[in-house]
Design goal:
mainly alpha; 61 residues; 3 helices; elongated; 48% helix
Length: 61
Amino acid sequence: MPGVSSVFDRARLGQANRLFETAEGPLNAEALSRIEAEDISASLVFNDPPGRDDASTQETP
């Protein structure tokens, strides 16, 4: 699981993608300040099955 700052970065990226795809003109401060649940769930970090970590996906030599 990534660090907290990485999680926030991914949420902001999700927000930016959502706003880019749905905006119909200039955005106000509220739209730019609000992170929706879909912005967070869009990140692949949160789509990994529970209990799985990066170490479990690496091959052993």
